[in-house]
Amino acid sequence: MLLSPKYRAFLRFRGAAVEVLEGTTYAGKTTVGILKYMLMVAESPERDHVIAGLDLGTLEKNIITKDYGIKHVFGSLVDYRPQGGAGITMPHIVYHTPGGDKIIYVLGYDNKARWKKALGGQYGCVYVDEANVADMDFLREVSIRNDYWMMTLNPDDPALPVYSEYINHCRPLPQYAADAPKELLNQLDQPPKEGWVHWYFTFDHNAAMTTKKRDQLLAGVPKGSKIWKNKILGLRGRATGLVFDLQPRNIISAAWLHKQIEDGEIKIRQYTCGVDTSYSQRSDDTFAFVFQALTECGKIIQLACRVYNNKLLTKPLSPSDIPPLLVDFLEGCRKDWGLARTVYIDNADAGTILECQKYRRQNGGLYTFAPAWKKTQLLDRINLQAGWMAHGNYLILDSCGPMIEELNAYSWKEDKNEPEDRNDHTINASQYGWLPYKHQIGGK
């Protein structure tokens, strides 16, 4: 088996309680991941372990019987019993190790009755294939029943609970932090947990991939499609039904933009800010502040965003809490970029608008707070924004992580021709900010 230096380091590394392997297709995650898993099983003092995937057939094809799978690599050291045997009724692998025989249960998380029956005890090592599509009840159950847990996955919809509950608590080792796209690193935003390690692999780390196979792979996926984004670029985002098609060319750095402004290549016409609110303590909905610039050449540039979620706050925010937070955000943006005098707040939230206007009367200041102009219907706003994106007139700084996440997740309803009411708060805030100036945006 050919192994790249990074995979060799991965195999040697010890000290993790959880290891997540995320990245592009054909990166070798499953092949090398299962090899390390088997080594960890051999080192474990426990007898019972688990390998889980979508279903038994998928596990056999992708892990057990394939080239460089368990049977190929470990040969006579393993005995696969798909029908059970020797007093064990469930599919399992008997693994002969120097520390004695180990039992590895083979579970499909599609069969709830079966895995519930199996997960009654404690296990040494657990391997979950394609964790992004796994049953969340299964993951929650198995997460408390192991000493060591490995998960593999291709990037998927960042709104999936597997990310917020598990994946985003992991962190890369310092020497490999630069391997993952900055956008994905920004999404590892939950509190880090000790011993939870994130590994990011691409087909560049797959030493067995030939140039011919790589070229064939790249040629077979439409460039710019969501499959290209998930499978080839290794970025998270829903693969189907997305409202917007955010491309790498739409994402820029602050350093590049400052240089363009200094050189006179980009001239700012004005700055504007939009605010969307949600006070729910039970949902993932957020308060969103978005600061943006309109240029003389007809571009709209998203410069900064800030979000709050009441569900995650010890002391939930109320309308009276918003004005000082918003002014602090605006002042930071003024120092970095310039002044946005008028701030447009969702006109459905009269309470927040009144609190902001009261704050101005009591404290003075530079900013005027106004209700958003929402006469332009949502579908028309989407149509405008999608067109600007396609023609390169919509840009966003790579530091606007929450907004990039939403643009890569905001989707159409499956049963109606309208977008879902989720993953849209920074998008809405941005629209409130540019709606009064929409005729100034577009190619010239």
At the first level of CATH, the class of the largest domain is Alpha Beta
Proportion of helical residues: 25-40%
User: Which blocks of ≥5 consecutive residues have pLDDT under 50?
Assistant: none
CATH homologous group name of the largest domain: P-loop containing nucleotide triphosphate hydrolases
Approximate shape: elongated
Q: Whole-number radius of gyration?
A: 25 Å
Strand content: 15-25%
Write down the domain tally.
2
Query: Any idea of the CATH topology of the largest domain?
Result: Rossmann fold
- Can you give the mean pLDDT? 91
Number of continuous helical runs: 16
At CATH's second level, what is the architecture of the largest domain?
3-Layer(aba) Sandwich
Q: For the largest sheet, list the strands in their spatial order.
A: 3-4-5-2-6-7-1-8
Number of beta-strand segments: 15
Biggest sheet architecture: 8 strands, mixed
Notable traits:
alpha/beta; single chain; 7-stranded mixed β-sheet; 444 residues; 2 domains; elongated
Walk me through this protein's architecture:
This protein is α/β, with parallel strands linked by helices and 444 residues long. It folds into two domains: 5-232, P-loop containing nucleotide triphosphate hydrolases (Rossmann fold); 248-440, Nucleotidyltransferase, domain 5 (2-Layer Sandwich). The protein is built from 16 helices and 15 strands. The protein has helices at 5-12, 29-43, 56-64, 70-74, 112-118, 136-142, 161-165, 182-186, 211-219, 226-232, 254-262, 322-336, 350-363, 378-390, 401-407, 425-434, and strands spanning 18-23, 48-53, 78-81, 92-97, 100-108, 123-128, 146-153, 196-201, 251-252, 268-276, 287-295, 300-308, 342-345, 368-371, 394-397. The strands form two sheets. It has an eight-stranded mixed sheet with strand order 3-4-5-2-6-7-1-8, with helices on both faces. Strand 11 and strand 12 (300-308) form a beta hairpin. It is elongated. The model has no long low-confidence stretch (mean pLDDT 91). This is Phage terminase, large subunit, PBSX family. InterPro entries: P-loop_NTPase.
